[in-house]
Amino acid sequence: MRPSRAAAVHATLAAVSVVMLMPFYWVLKTSLTGENIFQYPPALLPRAIHPFYYVDVWYYIPFVRYLINSVIVSIIVVGGNLVCNALAAYALTLRFRGKRAIIALLLSCMLIPFQATIIPAYLITKELHLLNSYLGLALPLCSTIVCIFVFKASFDAVPRSLIDAARIDGLAEWRIIRHVMLPLSTGAVATTVILSFIWSWNSFLWPLIVIRNPEMQTLPLGLSTFLSYMENTTGALYAFCIMVLVPGIGLFLLEQRRFIDGLTSGATKG
Amino acid sequence: MALSVQSWSPFKPSHFAGLIHYEELLFHDEVFWKSLWNTVVFMSSSPIAIALALGLALLVDTRIRGRGIYRAIIFVSYPLMTVAVGIIWRWLYDEKVGLINYILLSLHLTQRRIAFLDSYEWAMPSVVVAAVWQIVGFFMVILLAGLQNIPPNLQEAAALDGASGAQRFRHITLPLLRPAIFLCLMIGVINSFTSFDLIYVMTGGGPNYATEVLITYIYRVAFVLSKFDYAAALTVVLFVFLLIVTALANRLTGGEAGAVDAAE
Question: How many Cβ contacts (< 8 angstroms) between chains A and B?
């Protein structure tokens, strides 16, 4: 490529990157200085950096409580997804009558977004007396069709002879999954963990409906409640925002390749 | 086991009260029509996002240094908590001290400050910009995967035959990217039905229903007004609408979804 052209590409991408990063920078700056809340025109570079707003967060809101709630729900969801989807995917690798019909049904259901089913989901959860509980929060997210197909693709690649050998050795079916299939599908496991974690960590509409008790609120819910009585004018809101975003960004930076692959394979398998 | 996945999916008919709710919805409910229209507006922003993402994917696909970094920067907004993203954008759009108003004023693009999220005309475009900002990196990554699946020798052969860059893009890249573009389109459509978090945090559906979409309306009817039967009727409409749009998109892009199904 000609150097002038490469420079043009660099310039465009750099400009786009600035646009993409500006919102983060602005909120980070506000949370660290608070200066552009009361000051106009806003300064582009931070002047006096202080962590006071982060301290405020600890006093204003039960951050740890929200964090624990979010973590518990995420653990249930990730565990549920691993178990349910692996079992379902294993079943789909076997031969049985009506398999094609079930796969077709699953594929067409994949187009239905969860948000469109909140009314029946809410009524069912209510009937099960799971409102205001961790299980109720986690249950609808505990199995996702996308992840079933991620697992199925990986299980299909396991040689038949290996499974037959395990069966002849007298392994129970669930132990075949546990000791033969899963160790051979680490990629699918990682994808499922990442996808289900992100879904549960970020989910907002479902907790908003199911949780009435402030003690049980998860992080996104806590954030929106805080917004509703603080409005835009406190640095603590932005400090809270940053604290909530850090785990997601951290995970992304650590596991970038896996992360992007996971999220896109979640989409392309579907 | 497969059925356990489905237990929450099937929609339960909610009543035997005849079609009263549908009648009310179709003929007497202005907010419903407004929210349907807004959903369509929101949806129509995804071709723009896809076009932007395609441009970015082409740029990132060139052999330059640091493309991995650019890719990561553009993608990073996608997996973040949407509630937090909404708060960030509220802050940028702020009427008095928001960054966007400041930039517009200093560039003399506007004389007075604009209350983006509180004005009837600006609220929807503002929300759409934030939504595009969040999803464009995701589209870019999907399109990039599609680009990298195109065998390079096709491009080389065409170049040897004297095809210009634009011609190669038009006749090789675009047709071969069709499945990836279709996928983005589907995600965009579904996204327009599910963007509850962003709208709830940024505007709450207001001002005067300017940003009310079907899903926020369903939430309001069911959980604020406690009219579950009516919300159920709305949900059915949402389903029908989703089916129609999916079928249309499928027809437009030449039945790629059928190919995806067959591949599975």
Answer: 224
Side chain identity, residue A39: Q
Nearest CA in chain B to A86: B1
> ∠ CA B208-B213-B216 to the nearest 5 degrees?
90
Query: Tens digit of pLDDT for each residue in A167-205?
Result: 888 888 888 888 888 888 888 888 888 888 888 888 888
The pTM (predicted TM-score) of the whole model is 0.83
A71 and A36 fall within a common domain: no
> Encoding tokens for residue A175?
């132990």
Q: In this complex, which of A21, A22, A119 lies closest to B232 when CB atoms are compared?
A: A119
Q: Which residue of A has its CA nearest to B95?
A: A232
- Chain B residues within 8 A of A204 when measuring between CB atoms: 81-83, 196-197, 200
- Same domain, residue pair A227 and A102: yes
Nearest residue of chain B to residue A144 (CA atoms): B5
What domains can you pick out in chain B, each with its CATH number? Answer: 18-259 (1.10.3720.10)
Q: What is the pLDDT of residues A104-124, one digit of tens each?
A: 888 777 777 777 788 888 888
| Pair (A125, A240) in one structural domain | yes
Shared domain check, A104 and A67:
yes
What ipTM does this complex have? Answer: 0.82
Q: Are B238 and B222 in contact (CB under 8 A)?
A: no
Interface residue B111 vs chain A (CB under 8 A)? no
Confidence category of residue A36, pLDDT binned at 50, 70, 90: low
A82 and A23 within one domain: no
Q: Which residues of B touch A260 (CB under 8 A)?
A: 71, 75, 141
Considering the domain architecture, whether residues A25 and A102 belong to the same structural domain is answered as no
How high is the pLDDT of residue B71?
A: 84
**Count of domains observed in chain A:** 2
* C-alpha distances out from residue A1 to A4, A5, A202, B63, B172, Å: 8, 7, 42, 8, 20
Position B218 scores a pLDDT of 84
Query: B187: which chain A residues are within 8 Å (Cβ-Cβ)?
Result: 267
pLDDT at residue A267 tops 70: no
CATH no. for residue A103?
A: 1.10.3720.10
Q: Which residues of A touch B85 (CB under 8 A)?
A: 23
A71/A27 same-domain check: no
List chain B residues with CB under 8 Å of A209: 219, 223
Return the axis-axis angle of helices A63-93 and A219-230, rounded to nearest 10°.
140
Which residues have C-beta within 8 Å of that of residue B42, sequence separation ≥ 6? B124, B127, B128, B131, B192, B195, B213
Residue numbers of the domain that contains A41: 1-50
